[in-house]
Amino acid sequence: MYAVIETGGKQYRVAPGDVIDVERLPAGDEADEVVFERVLMIGGDEVKIGTPVVEGARVTARRLAEVRGPKIVVFKKKRRKGYRRTNGHRQNLLRVRIDQIQA
After folding, report:
1. Taking the model in full, what pTM does it have?
2. In the Cβ-directed half-sphere of 78, how many Cα atoms lie within 13 Å?
3. What range does the domain containing 12 cover?
4. Which of 1, 95, 98, 102 shows a CA-CA span of 20 to 30 A to 57?
5. Dihedral sign, CA of 8, 13, 15, 21?
6. Does residue 73 sit within a domain?
């Protein structure tokens, strides 16, 4: 069984046991468990597609660590003007392990 969830403006195809990096979520009361309510599709023996979400479906995950993504180099330049600026960015991410998919 697998599901397609949406979090942080991105969509992820997940199955139980998968480890994914998502946009950092605010710390909740239960620091170890994360629940994704926006389930767009559930696949397996029979496929359920939401309009836009599947009613009553949820994906439960466990927090593993807060990590940082790869470094992105931002370079700005205006030709013939001597203007050059270099900047960098690393996104804060949350690493989670998918535990359960509830249809």
Report:
1. 0.84
2. 3
3. 2-64+95-102
4. 95
5. negative
6. no
- Say how far apart CA 44 and CA 29 lie, in whole Å: 32
* CB atoms closer than 10 angstroms to residue 16: 15
Residue 49 lies in a domain: yes
Distance between CA 68 and CA 24 in Å, rounded? 10
User: Is residue 71, in this structure, part of any structural domain at all?
Assistant: no
- Which pLDDT band holds residue 28 (cuts at 50, 70, 90)? low
At a CB cut-off of 8 Å and minimum separation 6, what does 23 contact?
Answer: 7, 8, 9, 10, 91, 93, 94
User: What's the CA angle centered on 10, arms 37 and 92, to 5 degrees?
Assistant: 100
Which pLDDT score, from 0 to 100, does residue 29 have?
A: 54
Question: Could you give the percent of the chain with pLDDT greater than 90?
Answer: 89
15: in domain: yes
How many domains in the chain? 1
What are 41-68's pLDDT values in tens digits? 999 999 999 999 999 999 999 999 999 9
Tokens of 24: 């950092």
